């Protein structure tokens, strides 16, 4: 039977932010209903588990917070309540120990998401959170009730406050389709357009290159690019040549700058050092060694160690006559220019940028234009590279929104949200 004496919070969205919001509010004595559009919660969380479930990162503060770029200050305030160490402790309380990998990333020892999610959901149910799956949020009715589409038809549910944790626009098949944007804008809540983050980019490869080398890894390489202020940067890592362009962890790490450059210039210039650790002078000397009758491709393989997709990139840029200008070959190997045309579609991205503008929310993540409505997770206007930063901010913002909702409910004897 529903407890009508306690304030009631609706949490909409069963990802990490929503689940954390439900946990915090329930622990504070609030009656919590969690609504999820799909048939089960945590679907994108489980997808992250296929890569080992990179929960967080061991970066120290303030470096950790700086990963959130323009939103460093805002996210840092969330992390004061729930940082990487707190997240690891939270997982430990669920029986999941973690370790720091060689890259500084933090993973569960078994590198699986399912055991953690199962334990978490079990604990939430034991604590009293009511789960409602296959409930797709439609917005508000005229009397302020929350409207949901269900298998049995549309229904309306009343709550005293709501935490929206609806996700961004990436992986829409898992539930985060971004359809909430128009609904919130109609309520006067400012939303920045959702755009792809942690994504690949299109390059106009030749058909021959695609046929022979799509899917080939590029490692190690050093990326050279400039940020929005025109400052040049370099970062070593790994990426992959794809049928449509380029992707991979190195590209995701710099995707925000590349996307912004495309927004300004219509394209982005990315340079790849195919022979990191060697000076231009050394590469020039290696390229200039006598060929002794060998083909230029064989010469590159023997003297410079360039073959496969790296050699193909050289020919893609310089053409069949690449060996005619050895000085140009050396310079190109140290800085192969790539013209990025556009980001891959939002639905393919690991995460999205844009969303509910933080300026439209107060410090507790409550909508200034809609008291009693709180927002958390990837639907907020922030972004970060892969490496555990995404999940950490989702957890932390879910906690911040829930604490805000609890405080708001406890200070309002009438406990009414919306227009009801």
TrEMBL record:
| Keyword Flavoprotein belongs to the record | yes
Cofactor(s) needed, names only, are: FAD
Pfam families to which the protein is assigned, alphabetical: HI0933_like, HI0933_like_1st
- List residues of the RsdA/BaiN/AoA(So)-like Rossmann fold-like domain: 9-402
Q: Which SUPFAM superfamilies match?
A: FAD/NAD(P)-binding domain, HI0933 insert domain-like
- RsdA/BaiN/AoA(So)-like insert domain span: 195-351
Quote the InterPro entries the UniProt record gives.
BaiN-like, BaiN-like_dom_sf, FAD/NAD-bd_sf, Flavoprotein_PP4765, RsdA/BaiN/AoA(So)-like_dom, RsdA/BaiN/AoA(So)_Rossmann
Top-rank taxon of the source lineage equals Bacteria
Q: Which UniProt keywords apply?
A: FAD, Flavoprotein
Q: Which PANTHER family match?
A: BLR3961 PROTEIN (PTHR42887:SF1), OS12G0638800 PROTEIN (PTHR42887)
Give the protein name, as stated in the record.
Aminoacetone oxidase family FAD-binding enzyme
Lineage, top ranks: Bacteria, Pseudomonadati, Pseudomonadota, Gammaproteobacteria, Lysobacterales
């Amino acid at each position: 039977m529903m407890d009508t004496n306690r304030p009631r919070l609706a949490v909409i969205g069963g990802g990490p932010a929503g689940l954390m919001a439900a946990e915090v509010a329930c622990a504070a004595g609030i009656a919590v209903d969690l609504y999820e559009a799909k048939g089960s919660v945590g679907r994108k969380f489980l997808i992250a588990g296929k890569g080992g479930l990179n929960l967080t990162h061991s970066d120290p503060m303030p470096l950790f917070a700086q990963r959130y770029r323009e939103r460093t200050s805002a996210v840092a305030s969330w992390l004061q309540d729930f940082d990487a160490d707190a997240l690891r402790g939270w997982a430990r309380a669920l029986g999941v120990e973690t370790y720091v990998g060689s890259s500084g990333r933090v993973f569960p020892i078994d590198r699986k998401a399912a055991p953690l999610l199962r334990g978490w959901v079990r604990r939430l149910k034991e604590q009293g959170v009511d789960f409602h799956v296959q409930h797709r949020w439609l917005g508000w009715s005229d009397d302020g009730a929350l409207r949901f589409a269900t298998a049995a038809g549309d229904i309306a549910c009343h709550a005293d406050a709501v935490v929206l944790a609806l996700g961004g626009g990436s992986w829409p098949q898992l539930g985060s389709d971004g359809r909430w944007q128009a609904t919130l804008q109609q309520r006067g809540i400012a939303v920045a357009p959702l755009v792809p983050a942690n994504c690949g980019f299109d390059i106009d490869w030749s058909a021959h290159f695609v046929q022979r080398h799509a899917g080939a890894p590029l490692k190690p390489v050093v990326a050279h690019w400039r940020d929005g202020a025109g400052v040049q940067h370099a970062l070593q890592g790994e990426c992959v040549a794809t049928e449509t362009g380029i992707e991979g962890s190195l590209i995701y790490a710099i995707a925000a700058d590349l996307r912004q450059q495309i927004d300004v210039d219509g394209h982005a210039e990315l340079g790849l050092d195919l022979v990191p650790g060697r000076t231009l002078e050394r590469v020039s000397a290696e390229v200039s060694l006598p060929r002794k009758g060998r083909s230029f491709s064989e010469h590159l393989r023997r003297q410079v160690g360039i073959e496969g997709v790296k050699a193909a990139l050289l020919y893609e840029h310089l053409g069949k006559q690449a060996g005619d200008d050895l000085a140009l070959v050396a310079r190109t190997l140290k800085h192969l220019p790539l013209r990025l045309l556009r980001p891959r579609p939002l639905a393919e991205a690991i995460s999205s940028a844009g969303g509910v503008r933080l300026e439209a929310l107060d410090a507790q993540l409550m909508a200034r234009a809609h008291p009693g409505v709180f927002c958390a997770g990837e639907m907020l206007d922030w972004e970060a590279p892969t490496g555990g930063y995404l999940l950490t901010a989702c957890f932390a913002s879910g906690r911040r929104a829930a604490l805000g909702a609890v405080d708001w409910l406890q200070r309002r004897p009438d406990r009414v949200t919306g227009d009801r």
